């Protein structure tokens, strides 16, 4: 929603809202914790999280997209509103990836190596 001429109007491009996000400095030593494969079983696919030229990136079934770090454990796709939230267990190991969009949230377990 945005106020225009004293009235609130809905501001959208297709179904996606625009987000004003600011990237934080990336601690590259911590990125390796997130690298791995995450199972998207319901679609018969796997997300590959890897380190690219400019930090973390995710390679899915159809494309590879750079990720922008928002917090220590959250990232968003550079060209999308989708957000990735990495979940750690009590030992500190990354066990899941939550892939969150405005429409659906998917919990992807990390594939054991």
Any idea what the CATH architecture is? Answer: Beta Barrel
pLDDT < 50 runs, ≥5 residues = 12-18
CATH class: Mainly Beta
Strand adjacency order, main sheet = 3-4-5-6-7-8-9-10
Summarize the structure.
This protein is mainly β and 113 residues long. The protein has one helix and ten strands. It has one domain (22-109): Lipocalin.
Secondary structure blueprint with pairings:
Layout: E1 2-4, E2 7-9, H1 28-31, E3 36-40, E4 45-52, E5 55-59, E6 64-69, E7 74-77, E8 83-88, E9 94-100, E10 105-109
Antiparallel strand pairs: 1-2, 3-4, 4-5, 5-6, 6-7, 7-8, 8-9, 9-10
Attribute tags:
113 residues, mainly beta, Lipocalin, two-stranded antiparallel sheet, 4% helix, globular
Care to describe what's here?
This protein has 113 residues and is mainly beta. The chain has one domain (22-109): Beta Barrel (Lipocalin). It has one helix spanning 28-31, and strands at 2-4, 7-9, 36-40, 45-52, 55-59, 64-69, 74-77, 83-88, 94-100, 105-109. The strands form two sheets. The chain has an eight-stranded antiparallel β-sheet with strand order 3-4-5-6-7-8-9-10, with no helix packed on it. The longest helix has 4 residues, at 28-31. Mean pLDDT is 81; it is low at 12-18.
């Amino acid at each position: 929603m945005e106020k225009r001429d004293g009235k609130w109007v809905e501001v959208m491009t297709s179904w996606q809202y625009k987000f004003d996000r600011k990237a934080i400095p990336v601690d590259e030593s911590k990125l390796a914790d997130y690298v791995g494969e995450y199972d998207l079983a319901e679609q018969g696919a796997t997300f590959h999280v890897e380190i690219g030229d400019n930090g973390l990136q995710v390679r899915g079934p159809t494309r590879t997209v750079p990720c922008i770090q928002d917090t220590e454990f959250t990232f968003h796709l550079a060209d999308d509103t989708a957000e990735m939230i990495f979940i750690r267990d009590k030992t500190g190991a990354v066990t899941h990836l939550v892939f969150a969009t405005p429409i659906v949230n998917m919990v992807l377990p990390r594939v054991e190596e």
